[in-house]
Protein backbone atom coordinates (compact mmCIF):
# COMPACT_ATOMS: atom_id res chain seq x y z
CA UNK A 1 0.00 0.00 0.00
CA UNK A 2 1.49 3.37 -1.03
CA UNK A 3 2.29 6.26 1.28
CA UNK A 4 0.42 9.50 1.72
CA UNK A 5 1.88 12.97 1.42
CA UNK A 6 0.63 15.96 3.38
CA UNK A 7 0.17 19.10 1.31
CA UNK A 8 -0.21 22.43 3.11
CA UNK A 9 -1.49 25.52 1.30
CA UNK A 10 -0.92 28.63 3.41
CA UNK A 11 -3.00 31.68 2.63
CA UNK A 12 -3.63 34.98 4.32
CA UNK A 13 -7.24 33.98 5.05
CA UNK A 14 -7.29 30.20 5.21
CA UNK A 15 -4.89 27.40 6.07
CA UNK A 16 -5.64 24.25 4.07
CA UNK A 17 -4.09 20.82 4.48
CA UNK A 18 -4.73 17.54 2.69
CA UNK A 19 -3.68 13.92 2.60
CA UNK A 20 -2.58 13.31 -0.97
CA UNK A 21 -1.73 10.01 -2.63
CA UNK A 22 1.43 9.71 -4.71
CA UNK A 23 -0.80 9.76 -7.81
CA UNK A 24 -2.32 13.11 -6.83
CA UNK A 25 -5.63 11.99 -5.36
CA UNK A 26 -6.84 13.85 -2.26
CA UNK A 27 -7.93 11.42 0.44
CA UNK A 28 -8.75 13.83 3.26
CA UNK A 29 -8.89 17.56 3.87
CA UNK A 30 -8.50 19.92 6.80
CA UNK A 31 -9.27 23.63 6.70
CA UNK A 32 -8.99 26.30 9.38
CA UNK A 33 -8.72 30.11 9.36
CA UNK A 34 -5.09 31.26 9.22
CA UNK A 35 -5.61 34.03 11.80
CA UNK A 36 -2.03 35.13 11.25
CA UNK A 37 -2.83 38.33 13.15
CA UNK A 38 -2.66 36.25 16.35
CA UNK A 39 1.07 35.79 15.75
CA UNK A 40 3.56 33.14 14.71
CA UNK A 41 3.21 30.84 17.72
CA UNK A 42 -0.58 30.60 17.45
CA UNK A 43 -0.33 30.08 13.71
CA UNK A 44 2.19 27.25 14.09
CA UNK A 45 -0.06 25.58 16.66
CA UNK A 46 -2.86 25.60 14.09
CA UNK A 47 -0.61 24.03 11.47
CA UNK A 48 0.48 21.30 13.89
CA UNK A 49 -3.16 20.67 14.83
CA UNK A 50 -4.01 20.10 11.18
CA UNK A 51 -1.04 17.78 10.68
CA UNK A 52 -2.03 15.76 13.75
CA UNK A 53 -5.58 15.39 12.45
CA UNK A 54 -4.42 14.14 9.04
CA UNK A 55 -1.81 11.90 10.60
CA UNK A 56 -4.56 10.23 12.65
CA UNK A 57 -6.64 9.69 9.50
CA UNK A 58 -3.66 8.16 7.72
CA UNK A 59 -3.09 5.78 10.63
CA UNK A 60 -6.78 4.78 10.52
CA UNK A 61 -6.28 3.92 6.84
CA UNK A 62 -3.10 1.98 7.69
CA UNK A 63 -1.05 4.36 5.55
CA UNK A 64 2.31 5.98 6.31
CA UNK A 65 3.08 9.69 5.90
CA UNK A 66 6.11 10.03 3.63
CA UNK A 67 6.61 13.76 4.09
CA UNK A 68 5.09 17.23 4.18
CA UNK A 69 5.12 19.92 1.49
CA UNK A 70 4.25 23.54 2.22
CA UNK A 71 3.40 26.34 -0.20
CA UNK A 72 3.80 29.87 1.16
CA UNK A 73 2.96 33.19 -0.55
CA UNK A 74 6.23 35.11 -0.53
CA UNK A 75 9.98 34.83 -0.92
CA UNK A 76 11.11 31.45 0.38
CA UNK A 77 14.78 30.50 0.34
CA UNK A 78 16.16 27.12 -0.68
CA UNK A 79 16.60 26.19 2.99
CA UNK A 80 12.91 26.79 3.77
CA UNK A 81 13.32 30.22 5.37
CA UNK A 82 10.47 32.61 4.62
CA UNK A 83 12.31 35.83 3.90
CA UNK A 84 9.27 37.95 3.17
CA UNK A 85 5.53 37.34 2.97
CA UNK A 86 3.34 40.41 2.56
CA UNK A 87 0.19 38.69 3.86
CA UNK A 88 1.95 36.63 6.54
CA UNK A 89 4.33 39.11 8.18
CA UNK A 90 4.75 37.17 11.47
CA UNK A 91 6.44 34.42 9.41
CA UNK A 92 9.14 36.71 7.98
CA UNK A 93 12.67 35.34 8.64
CA UNK A 94 11.20 32.10 10.01
CA UNK A 95 12.33 28.67 8.80
CA UNK A 96 8.98 26.94 8.75
CA UNK A 97 10.37 23.80 7.11
CA UNK A 98 12.93 23.26 9.87
CA UNK A 99 10.33 23.93 12.56
CA UNK A 100 7.82 21.45 11.16
CA UNK A 101 10.51 18.80 10.59
CA UNK A 102 11.62 19.12 14.21
CA UNK A 103 8.07 19.03 15.57
CA UNK A 104 6.75 16.15 13.45
CA UNK A 105 9.77 14.03 12.57
CA UNK A 106 8.78 14.09 8.88
CA UNK A 107 10.76 15.28 5.91
CA UNK A 108 9.47 18.77 5.07
CA UNK A 109 9.91 20.91 1.95
CA UNK A 110 8.74 24.53 1.89
CA UNK A 111 8.67 26.83 -1.14
CA UNK A 112 6.85 29.73 -2.73
CA UNK A 113 3.26 28.68 -3.42
CA UNK A 114 3.39 29.39 -7.15
CA UNK A 115 6.61 27.39 -7.48
CA UNK A 116 4.87 24.52 -5.74
CA UNK A 117 1.89 24.81 -8.10
CA UNK A 118 4.25 24.60 -11.08
CA UNK A 119 5.49 21.26 -9.77
CA UNK A 120 1.89 20.20 -9.18
CA UNK A 121 1.05 20.89 -12.82
CA UNK A 122 4.15 18.94 -13.85
CA UNK A 123 3.26 15.85 -11.81
CA UNK A 124 -0.54 15.92 -11.78
CA UNK A 125 -1.87 18.51 -14.24
CA UNK A 126 -1.49 20.30 -17.55
CA UNK A 127 2.32 20.03 -17.46
CA UNK A 128 2.43 16.24 -17.58
CA UNK A 129 4.68 15.12 -20.42
CA UNK A 130 6.18 18.58 -20.84
CA UNK A 131 9.68 19.53 -19.73
CA UNK A 132 9.81 23.33 -19.99
CA UNK A 133 6.93 25.66 -19.16
CA UNK A 134 5.80 28.48 -16.91
CA UNK A 135 2.76 28.43 -14.66
CA UNK A 136 1.08 31.80 -14.13
CA UNK A 137 -1.42 32.14 -11.28
CA UNK A 138 -3.51 35.28 -11.60
CA UNK A 139 -5.40 36.21 -8.48
CA UNK A 140 -5.05 39.11 -6.06
CA UNK A 141 -1.50 39.33 -7.42
CA UNK A 142 0.39 37.42 -10.08
CA UNK A 143 2.47 34.40 -9.10
CA UNK A 144 4.56 32.12 -11.26
CA UNK A 145 6.73 29.03 -11.29
CA UNK A 146 9.19 27.79 -13.91
CA UNK A 147 9.83 24.21 -14.91
CA UNK A 148 13.00 23.92 -17.00
CA UNK A 149 14.25 20.59 -18.35
CA UNK A 150 11.78 18.80 -16.12
CA UNK A 151 12.83 20.47 -12.86
CA UNK A 152 11.62 23.39 -10.82
CA UNK A 153 13.92 26.35 -11.45
CA UNK A 154 14.60 27.96 -8.07
CA UNK A 155 17.52 30.23 -8.93
CA UNK A 156 20.67 30.83 -6.90
CA UNK A 157 18.91 31.52 -3.61
CA UNK A 158 15.51 29.94 -4.19
CA UNK A 159 13.79 33.17 -5.21
CA UNK A 160 13.44 32.67 -8.97
CA UNK A 161 10.33 33.20 -11.12
CA UNK A 162 8.95 36.36 -9.50
CA UNK A 163 7.38 37.11 -12.86
CA UNK A 164 4.75 39.39 -11.37
CA UNK A 165 7.53 41.84 -10.59
CA UNK A 166 8.94 42.09 -14.08
CA UNK A 167 8.82 45.78 -15.04
CA UNK A 168 6.51 46.42 -17.98
CA UNK A 169 5.98 50.16 -17.49
CA UNK A 170 9.03 51.92 -15.97
CA UNK A 171 7.06 55.07 -15.22
CA UNK A 172 3.98 53.20 -14.08
CA UNK A 173 2.12 52.86 -10.81
CA UNK A 174 3.88 51.93 -7.60
CA UNK A 175 3.79 48.25 -6.70
CA UNK A 176 3.57 46.83 -3.16
CA UNK A 177 7.17 45.69 -3.62
CA UNK A 178 8.29 49.32 -3.99
CA UNK A 179 9.08 49.19 -7.70
CA UNK A 180 7.16 51.06 -10.39
CA UNK A 181 5.24 49.39 -13.20
CA UNK A 182 5.39 45.73 -12.14
CA UNK A 183 3.38 43.32 -14.28
CA UNK A 184 0.99 42.37 -11.47
CA UNK A 185 -0.17 46.01 -11.29
CA UNK A 186 -1.58 45.46 -14.79
CA UNK A 187 -2.40 41.74 -14.84
CA UNK A 188 -4.25 40.70 -11.66
CA UNK A 189 -7.70 40.76 -10.11
CA UNK A 190 -6.88 44.09 -8.53
CA UNK A 191 -5.87 45.53 -11.89
CA UNK A 192 -9.11 44.36 -13.47
CA UNK A 193 -11.26 45.87 -10.73
CA UNK A 194 -9.39 49.17 -10.87
CA UNK A 195 -10.07 49.25 -14.63
CA UNK A 196 -13.76 48.56 -14.02
CA UNK A 197 -14.28 51.07 -11.25
CA UNK A 198 -17.73 52.56 -11.55
CA UNK A 199 -19.16 49.69 -13.62
CA UNK A 200 -20.79 47.83 -10.76
CA UNK A 201 -24.25 48.64 -9.37
CA UNK A 202 -24.41 50.64 -6.13
CA UNK A 203 -26.12 47.78 -4.30
CA UNK A 204 -22.87 45.81 -4.52
CA UNK A 205 -21.14 48.24 -2.14
CA UNK A 206 -21.91 45.95 0.79
CA UNK A 207 -20.36 43.04 -1.12
CA UNK A 208 -17.21 44.27 -2.88
CA UNK A 209 -17.13 43.17 -6.53
CA UNK A 210 -14.76 40.42 -7.60
CA UNK A 211 -12.97 39.53 -10.82
CA UNK A 212 -15.72 36.95 -11.40
CA UNK A 213 -18.29 39.76 -11.34
CA UNK A 214 -16.18 41.58 -13.92
CA UNK A 215 -16.07 38.47 -16.08
CA UNK A 216 -19.86 38.25 -16.02
CA UNK A 217 -20.08 41.85 -17.20
CA UNK A 218 -17.60 41.15 -19.99
CA UNK A 219 -19.51 38.05 -21.14
CA UNK A 220 -22.71 40.11 -21.11
CA UNK A 221 -21.03 42.39 -23.64
CA UNK A 222 -20.12 45.39 -21.47
CA UNK A 223 -17.48 47.17 -23.59
CA UNK A 224 -15.51 48.62 -20.66
CA UNK A 225 -15.33 45.23 -18.94
CA UNK A 226 -14.24 43.57 -22.17
CA UNK A 227 -11.57 46.24 -22.60
CA UNK A 228 -10.29 45.58 -19.08
CA UNK A 229 -9.70 41.90 -19.90
CA UNK A 230 -8.19 42.86 -23.25
CA UNK A 231 -5.75 45.18 -21.46
CA UNK A 232 -4.80 42.43 -19.03
CA UNK A 233 -4.06 40.07 -21.91
CA UNK A 234 -2.01 42.73 -23.68
CA UNK A 235 0.23 43.45 -20.68
CA UNK A 236 0.63 39.76 -19.94
CA UNK A 237 1.50 39.06 -23.58
CA UNK A 238 4.14 41.79 -23.66
CA UNK A 239 5.92 40.26 -20.66
CA UNK A 240 5.50 36.65 -21.74
CA UNK A 241 6.82 37.36 -25.23
CA UNK A 242 10.16 38.44 -23.76
CA UNK A 243 10.27 35.36 -21.55
CA UNK A 244 9.35 33.08 -24.44
CA UNK A 245 12.04 34.53 -26.69
CA UNK A 246 14.53 34.01 -23.87
CA UNK A 247 13.59 30.46 -22.88
CA UNK A 248 11.71 28.95 -25.86
CA UNK A 249 9.14 27.33 -23.59
CA UNK A 250 6.76 24.55 -24.58
CA UNK A 251 3.79 25.98 -22.75
CA UNK A 252 2.26 28.73 -20.67
CA UNK A 253 -0.16 27.31 -18.11
CA UNK A 254 -2.58 29.82 -16.63
CA UNK A 255 -4.50 29.36 -13.39
CA UNK A 256 -5.75 31.28 -10.38
CA UNK A 257 -9.09 33.01 -9.92
CA UNK A 258 -8.69 35.24 -12.98
CA UNK A 259 -7.23 32.32 -14.93
CA UNK A 260 -10.73 30.85 -15.03
CA UNK A 261 -11.59 33.67 -17.45
CA UNK A 262 -8.77 32.84 -19.85
CA UNK A 263 -11.17 32.94 -22.78
CA UNK A 264 -11.71 36.67 -22.18
CA UNK A 265 -8.06 37.70 -22.36
CA UNK A 266 -6.50 34.92 -24.45
CA UNK A 267 -7.10 36.68 -27.80
CA UNK A 268 -5.13 39.76 -26.69
CA UNK A 269 -2.48 37.54 -25.10
CA UNK A 270 -2.03 35.58 -28.32
CA UNK A 271 -1.98 38.75 -30.39
CA UNK A 272 0.96 40.14 -28.41
CA UNK A 273 2.82 36.84 -28.41
CA UNK A 274 2.40 36.39 -32.17
CA UNK A 275 3.64 39.92 -32.84
CA UNK A 276 6.57 39.93 -30.43
CA UNK A 277 7.91 36.35 -30.49
CA UNK A 278 10.01 34.82 -33.23
CA UNK A 279 7.60 32.83 -35.41
CA UNK A 280 9.56 29.63 -34.77
CA UNK A 281 9.12 30.15 -31.01
CA UNK A 282 5.45 31.16 -31.10
CA UNK A 283 4.48 28.25 -33.35
CA UNK A 284 5.60 25.75 -30.72
CA UNK A 285 4.14 27.59 -27.74
CA UNK A 286 0.98 26.20 -26.12
CA UNK A 287 -1.33 28.28 -23.92
CA UNK A 288 -3.16 25.98 -21.53
CA UNK A 289 -5.56 26.35 -18.60
CA UNK A 290 -4.51 24.86 -15.28
CA UNK A 291 -5.95 21.41 -14.60
CA UNK A 292 -5.63 21.58 -10.81
CA UNK A 293 -8.39 24.10 -10.06
CA UNK A 294 -9.02 25.04 -6.43
CA UNK A 295 -6.72 22.24 -5.28
CA UNK A 296 -3.68 23.68 -7.06
CA UNK A 297 -2.06 24.81 -3.82
CA UNK A 298 -2.61 21.51 -2.04
CA UNK A 299 -1.47 19.34 -4.93
CA UNK A 300 1.45 21.67 -5.59
CA UNK A 301 2.62 21.36 -1.99
CA UNK A 302 2.34 17.57 -2.19
CA UNK A 303 4.31 17.61 -5.46
CA UNK A 304 6.97 19.67 -3.74
CA UNK A 305 7.76 17.03 -1.13
CA UNK A 306 7.30 14.23 -3.67
CA UNK A 307 9.99 15.76 -5.89
CA UNK A 308 12.30 16.24 -2.92
CA UNK A 309 11.90 12.64 -1.77
CA UNK A 310 12.59 11.46 -5.29
CA UNK A 311 15.82 13.51 -5.34
CA UNK A 312 16.91 11.96 -2.03
CA UNK A 313 16.20 8.46 -3.31
CA UNK A 314 18.16 9.12 -6.50
CA UNK A 315 21.18 10.59 -4.73
Structure summary:
By secondary structure, the protein is α/β, with parallel strands linked by helices.
Overview of this protein structure:
The chain is of the alpha/beta class. The chain has two domains: 4-112, ATPase, nucleotide binding domain (Nucleotidyltransferase, domain 5, 2-Layer Sandwich), CATH 3.30.420; 126-290, Nucleotidyltransferase, domain 5 (2-Layer Sandwich). Helices cover 38% and strands 22% of the residues. The strands form three sheets. It has a five-stranded mixed β-sheet with strand order 3-2-1-4-8.
CATH T-level fold name of the largest domain: Nucleotidyltransferase, domain 5
- Assign the CATH architecture of the largest domain: 2-Layer Sandwich
Q: Helix proportion of residues, in percent?
A: 25-40%
Total number of β-strand segments? Answer: 13
Describe the secondary structure blueprint for this structure.
Blueprint: E1 4-10, E2 14-21, E3 26-33, H1 40-60, E4 65-72, E5 75-76, E6 81-84, E7 94-95, H2 96-104, E8 108-112, H3 113-124, E9 133-138, E10 142-148, E11 151-152, H4 189-195, H5 211-219, H6 223-247, E12 251-255, H7 262-276, H8 279-282, E13 286-289, H9 296-314
Parallel strand pairs: 1-4, 4-8, 9-12, 12-13
Antiparallel strand pairs: 1-2, 2-3, 5-6, 6-7, 9-10, 10-11
Helix pairs in contact: 3-9, 4-6, 5-6, 6-7
Amino acid sequence: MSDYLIGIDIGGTNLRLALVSTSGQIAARYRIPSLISEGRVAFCERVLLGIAELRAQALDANRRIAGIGVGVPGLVGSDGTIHSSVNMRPLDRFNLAAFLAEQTGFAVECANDANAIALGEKLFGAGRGRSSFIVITIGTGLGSGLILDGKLWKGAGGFAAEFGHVTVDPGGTVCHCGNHGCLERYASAGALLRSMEGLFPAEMNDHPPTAADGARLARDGNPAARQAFDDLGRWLGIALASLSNLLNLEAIIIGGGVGGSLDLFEPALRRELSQRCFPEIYSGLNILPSELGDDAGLLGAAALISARLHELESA
